[in-house]
Model the fold of this input.
Amino acid sequence: MQDGKGLVAADQPFYCELRAGQRSLWCACGKSATQPYCDGKSHIGTGFLPVLYRAKADEEVLFCGCKQTSTPPFCDGAHSNLAGGYTDEGDRGEDQAVALVSPDREGFARLDGDCYVVSPGKSLTDLSPDCRISALVTPDLGSRHQSQFYLELDRGQSPMFGADGEVVIWVAKGEGRIIIGGERFALSQMSGAFVLADETFALEGENLVCYISVCPAADSLRIVQEQAAFHDAQPERMGLIDEGARTEMGPRYFQVLLDDTDGLTNSAQFIGHIPKSRAKMHRHLYEEALIIVSGHGMIWNETRRAQVRAGDVIFFPRKHVHSLQSLSEDGMDVVGFIHPGTNPGINYY
Ligand code: FES
Done:
């Protein structure tokens, strides 16, 4: 036991369902025979004490199994950086047991359950001669916690939008501005921005391509005539790339662009890099929409797989078993939006 951490009891967290008020005594020493819980005796003499957790509501939690977490009793993703904690399954090539699916006429390739890949741009609706939009992720398409829309603006200004939730934008191409209330913020390619739930926004610029996430989920973005006020209490609205803020995750890394510390509610936008590799099948407790920024690869489910390339979006329901394989020599860059949850480094099997 080094650095104040217990022994590695497991290389992944334990998924547990708790009832409101239920008390759990999490093993911190790593020696308990009843993981992830304390067995009442194994910690004696180790200097560790178990950690009590009382569920505030009916909850699904991931109790740390590796005992290296910085957020005990919960997993913080540290297990991915242990020796053997991140497994590359290698290239399975043309695995005939997992059917390769192709996109339909609207650009959707349907995988297992409600998981899918969508190539934007096949079913755009004109909002004006210079502005088009399509829905990529909505409750109608299978989401429960978030939506995502794809918007192209050739020049000038988009209509003004309102949404019944927080709005998080990824600028995939172009330069311009976002107007929130009466405030303007410069937008550049490869940056994020957000809008609070009761604000309005419009985009202006040239050759802008944006992915617009809304949380909670909404079936559409509302076009509104009346501009709502800008919330001065939250003056910063941009999510910018900062290589110094990266978090290692085995051979991968990610950087959170926007999260609760910026004013979001239990959600996060992040950018990540996946070297040429294929991770072990895993799942998350959050729902995720993942934009492929560069590179190409294969998204694997248990019975289906689909090719992905730059510009595509993969929708992952909560607890959905998957693996994203990068097939590019330079790896794959991705931008994700997750909810509920703020740590894209937490996974379980
Ligand atoms: S299992 Fe320990 S940090 Fe995830």
